[in-house]
Amino acid sequence: MTMQFNDETFRGDYTYRNSPEAIRRFPFPFDQDSYMYSVNIEQHPGGPQGSPFEHMFDVDEHYVAEMRDREITLAEDPLRCQSLPHMELAGWDLLELIMVSKARDYPDLFSLTRDGNDWHWVNKPMGIDKRFTFLDAATLPYGPMEYITRQTQGDFALLHERDGNLWMDAGMVTSQADWSLDFDVGMNFFEWHAPVPKARQMGVFDKALKFLLAVGQGQHYRRLNWTMTVNPRLDTSPENYHKWGPEKRTITPENVGHKQFLRVELQTFFRLPRSNALAFPIRCYLASLDDLVTQPKWGRRLHRVLRDIDPDLADYKGFAVNREVIVNYLSQYDDGEPTSPGIFPED
Amino acid sequence: MTKLALKVAAVEQLTPLVKRFRFEDPTGAPLPVFSGGAHITVEMPNGDTIRRNSYSLISDPYDPSGYEIAVRREDTGRGGSSHMHSAVAEGDTITVSVPANLFQLDLRARKHVLIGGGIGITPFLSQLRQLDREQKPYELHYAARSRAEAAGIALLPEAAHIHVHISDEGNRMDLGAILDGQPLGTHVYTCGPEGLIAAVADQAARLGWPKSAVHSEAFTAPPPGAPFEVTIASSGQIVPVKADQSLLEALEAAGVEIDYSCRGGACGRCETAVTACDGQIEHNDHWLSADERAAQKKIMPCMSRFKGTRLELDL
């Protein structure tokens, strides 16, 4: 079946919506009724058919609209995409990984034909048909990382490995949970994670870095992270805080169900072959509270998680100001019944 | 760890002590490409144990048609290299890991100086192909005692920026002359005997090079030694380690689950906590700090051994 792509916006009139199928496959991040940090890492890809974990790079009904939104953000602020000079090779590695994966996983939508370094790429949803020379940046309209990430949902950080650390030396970041590539570019793993409360003292980052440095070719991993966003806005950046920050104050008991979104990041890790860099795609999924409570298990669980969460985490994740309204709203969907283990909805 | 079952496509004697091996996919499928300085781990079944040694790849990193390694026979080693020399022939099937890299080029460098001693030339053979492809300026210095021992000569292209130093011919490598006067932003990489690595680091420090521009790779095969025993804390199981076996190999043979990657004391993956130690750990790795070694609370089973009455591991 050919995929239908939504005509929708992530700003202004906010016409973004999830179909019932999109809701059921939403990557709900809580596998139990409470939340604290963990290095919750699993192998990727792999998951139930139709889930966002099935393929290397998930393509869904929001694809075309998300790429249009990225184009708007980049036109307003080109620094959302940066690549230090030594990272071009990693960009080619990423381009290869994405093109090969998408052509294999979605043959109806994408195709890639290779004859040595002469490549032919077809992206049907975006109407792109391009012949170019692999490893020759002069044959593409943008650098290789920018070219392919203008056609791939999610943000991307390319991490250079040296001195026993990882350095954020390239990225495409337009759908971020309040962090800035322009601020973080060139920083190491500990530096760019410095704002996260509690985690460093818990030793989370030392373990996470050790794990990442050991990720080898052909071993891909994922984890889920989450936050809360008012309105279905992809670009919740520090640069544009003046646009979306005040929207947090528009939540009322009457509109919270359709204006308050759970924002889930599907983070994946890939070791790139020629550059030995790590690719770190961060894919954003948005679902409103009204979307989520259509699955009774998720309504019960989200209520319990947000009711009991550490206040520091509510603050860091940016919803402390609306927590009471959110929890009150969700309480009507929590009948106190037990929830089943795992993240997937009950049938 | 992702593994590949490959066919030994060619074996070539380069010098009396060094053989080159070429591995290809048995169906001709392309192999994962890699980065300059990467290595693979080669499995060598031997009775009840599987010996695994890591070797630098010496072929073109962007060529998926095959992997090549060069192996120097070490008659005083655990037997891995002599197994490669005596038991591996063209047409055999061999299991290797996908490439991993603990000695990558820093592509920020304005110039790269590569210094290899003896069999330590191997990681540079893939690096210089990558540098050629990337069109980065570099010079390579290869030092060997005698021309007969110098396997690198057969493997290195002839070029003005590739220098061979044979000490028997009165042409010893002069590190001061090599490192002095290099442009700002040059990085130096050394692979070879510990003494060479230390001498380059020392010379670079004296000339005021930043530490982050000085790289080295010293991982070697684990050394043999006297047999010893370890106790597994969780089960009480006692695992004997033979003279020609590494502790990691003994744990694997005993069915104890343990993670690994480089098997050369460099990557940190097999780091294991020590819950009781009555004796002396012989730390042969490059991972633990001097303080960690002295504390005897951690061990790297891929390289290190033990002398004493009791060593208990948190496994």
Element layout with pairings:
The complex is a heterodimer of chains A (347) and B (315).
Chain A: H1 20-24, E1 42-43, H2 63-76, E2 81-83, H3 88-105, E3 110-115, E4 118-123, E5 128-133, H4 144-149, E6 155-162, E7 165-172, H5 181-184, H6 189-192, H7 204-213, E8 221-230, H8 241-244, H9 256-259, E9 260-271, E10 278-288, H10 289-292, H11 296-308, H12 311-316, H13 323-331
Antiparallel strand pairs in A: 1-8, 2-7, 3-4, 4-5, 6-7, 6-10, 8-9, 9-10
Chain B: E1 3-13, E2 18-24, E3 39-46, E4 49-56, E5 67-72, H1 80-87, E6 93-97, E7 111-117, H2 122-134, E8 138-144, H3 151-155, E9 162-166, H4 175-179, E10 186-191, H5 194-206, E11 214-217, E12 228-232, E13 238-241, H6 247-253, E14 272-282, H7 290-295, E15 298-299, E16 305-313
Parallel strand pairs in B: 7-8, 7-10, 8-9, 10-11, 12-16
Antiparallel strand pairs in B: 1-2, 1-6, 2-5, 3-4, 12-13, 14-15, 14-16
The total count of helices of chain A amounts to 13
Largest sheet of chain A: 7 strands, antiparallel
Structural class of chain B: alpha/beta
Shape of chain B: globular
Mean pLDDT of chain B: 92
Into which percent range does the helicity of residues of chain B fall?
A: 10-25%
Give the spatial strand order of the biggest sheet of chain B: 9-8-7-10-11
Task: Provide the succession of SSEs of chain A.
Answer: HEHEHEEEHEEHHHEHHEEHHHH
| Biggest interface, residues from each chain | A-B, 19 and 26 residues
Q: Termini distance of chain B? A: 19 Å
> How would you describe the shape of chain A?
globular
**Based on the structure given, which CATH architecture of the largest domain in chain B is correct?**
3-Layer(aba) Sandwich
Indicate the low-confidence ranges of chain B by residue numbers: none
- The amount of beta strand of chain A, in percent, is 15-25%
Gyration radius of chain A, in Å:
20 Å
Please give the largest β-sheet of chain B: 5 strands, parallel
Number of domains of chain B: 3
H/E series of chain B, N to C?
EEEEEHEEHEHEHEHEEEHEHEE
Count of alpha/pi helices of chain B: 7
Structural class of chain A: alpha+beta
Radius of gyration of chain B: 20 Å
